[in-house]
Design brief:
Elements (H helix, E strand, L loop, with lengths): L5 H4 L5 H12 L5 E8 L9 E10 L3 E9 L3 H6 L3 H25 L13 E5 L6 E5 L7 E2 L6 H24 L1 H8 L9 H25 L6 H11 L2 H10 L6 E3 L8 E3 L4 E3 L6 E3 L1 H10 L8 H21 L4 H4 L2 H11 L2 H13 L10 H4 L8 H4 L8 H16 L4
Antiparallel strand pairs: 1-2, 2-3, 3-5, 4-5, 6-8, 7-10, 8-9
Length: 413
């Protein structure tokens, strides 16, 4: 086994940078005497970055950091055309967007701080070749990644974290529109766009085939309104609709997490933190909200379950807006939120078309030797990197079927 070191993450991540971060984090003048680098994320937690843990031992203190670096395999990096954009976007979030959000929250006299729901960033570097982001290690606070079956408490505190991000974004939009708009122009859609359309096509086709097979087990293709509505949704072009939904920006748009599925939230008994802001976008709150809710399949099995989760989210949104002295009825009333969901809430199902089959399939390891495995390829097909397998378990099948039924019952499709 190869011994990992800082250069495995990035040639620009030096011991001096770690020393500086160590002093800040420990609030001391202690120096690091020992550094150990290990993997921090399991195989398949994404294709853009490799995630590492950096354990640091000083004379009087010890702590650890999480570092994200670009995947080292040249062919894999070449295959993910948007990898540079994703990394730059996450670094931009920590260095520009988050400071603007926390500043407006403080200026409005809020008791709460968005930073409590987001990891502290101790440094970043992006040049498209040696990128890294250095973050606090939330495992030190007892945080663990959400599973595909979160508890009610985990779901609700994650909705709270999303509401916090959206509320402060709304505050920036209404009190500092010039800053909000300046940031928004830097956030063209990075994932669902024409550049990735052809690369995504075969993978999407495989996912849709799996979805139809599952749905046909529970709904008669000839008579079921659920099957027919889903069929009609698919016939209108899934990727085309995803591009339209994610690229639409109007006066109600906010900064969205962009990839609000369960693996991107860490929870402890006292804390819920959002991670991985690489797909950050400026769009309707309905995108983050509908996507996260439908992926809590063990808790959201009916229209009423969905509506309950929306109400929980909205109560938190109201709280954070009022904490900043903002009347929720002037920026996002209950009626406005429900209108947003009617217009854009089908995003949850459209994104789940691929996400549910992916979540229940075995994913690739970003540290594999792809140049050897796919010698002769100019670009590795996405369907090779994310090989989808038929959904076998009854519970997982019902998860997908319930998302379709809920979307129809709510009038989202």
């Amino acid at each position: 086994m190869v011994q990992l070191n800082l250069s495995c993450i990035s040639s620009k991540l030096s011991e001096d940078i770690i020393q500086h971060a160590f002093k800040i984090k420990t609030n001391s003048e202690d120096s690091v005497n020992y550094i150990k680098v290990t993997r921090a994320a399991p195989a398949g937690e994404g294709l853009i970055a490799a995630v590492y843990r950096i354990a640091c031992l000083g004379q009087y203190h010890k702590t650890s950091f999480i570092a994200k670096g670009l995947v080292q395999d040249k062919l894999l990096r070449k295959s993910i055309l948007c990898s540079k954009i994703f990394f730059q976007r996450e670094a931009y979030f920590y260095t520009n967007i988050l400071p603007a959000l926390t500043a407006v929250q403080k200026a409005l006299g809020a008791k709460e701080s968005l930073q409590n729901n987001i990891p502290i960033c101790y440094g970043s570097y992006t040049d498209g070749a040696n990128d890294y982001i250095l973050l606090e290690d939330l495992a030190e606070n007892g945080c663990k990644s959400l599973t595909n079956e979160p508890t009610e408490q985990e779901r609700d505190t994650t909705l709270k974290a999303l509401a916090h991000l959206h509320a402060v974004s709304m505050a920036l939009r209404v009190t500092k529109p010039e800053i909000f708009n300046s940031i928004a122009t830097q956030l063209p859609e990075a994932y669902y766009n024409d550049i990735n359309r052809d690369w995504y096509a075969a993978y999407l086709k495989n996912a849709i085939a799996i979805d139809f097979d599952v749905l046909a087990e529970f709904e008669d293709p000839k008579t079921s309104v659920y099957y027919k509505r889903f069929e009609n949704l698919i016939s209108n072009g899934v990727y085309k609709q995803l591009i339209e939904l994610t690229s639409h920006r109007d006066e109600l748009a906010v900064f969205n997490h962009g990839d609000a599925w369960t693996p991107n939230f860490l929870c402890s008994e006292e804390l819920t933190v959002a991670i991985d802001f690489q797909a950050l976008r400026c769009s309707s709150v309905a995108l983050d909200l509908s996507y996260f809710i439908v992926l809590c399949g063990n808790l959201v099995q009916t229209k009423q379950d969905f509506q309950k989760a929306v109400k929980i989210y909205y109560d938190f949104l109201k709280y954070y807006l009022r904490d900043m002295g903002i009347d929720e009825n002037k920026v996002c009333s209950w009626n406005i939120l429900n209108e947003e969901l009617k217009k854009y809430g089908k995003f949850g199902l459209l994104a789940a078309v691929t996400s549910i089959p992916l979540l229940v399939s075995k994913k690739c390891d970003v540290l594999e030797k792809f140049e050897e495995k796919y010698a002769g390829y100019e670009r590795i097909p996405l369907e090779e990197l994310w090989k989808l397998t038929p959904i076998e378990s009854h519970e997982q099948k019902k998860w997908l079927v319930n998302v379709v039924r809920i979307s129809v019952d709510l009038g989202l499709i």
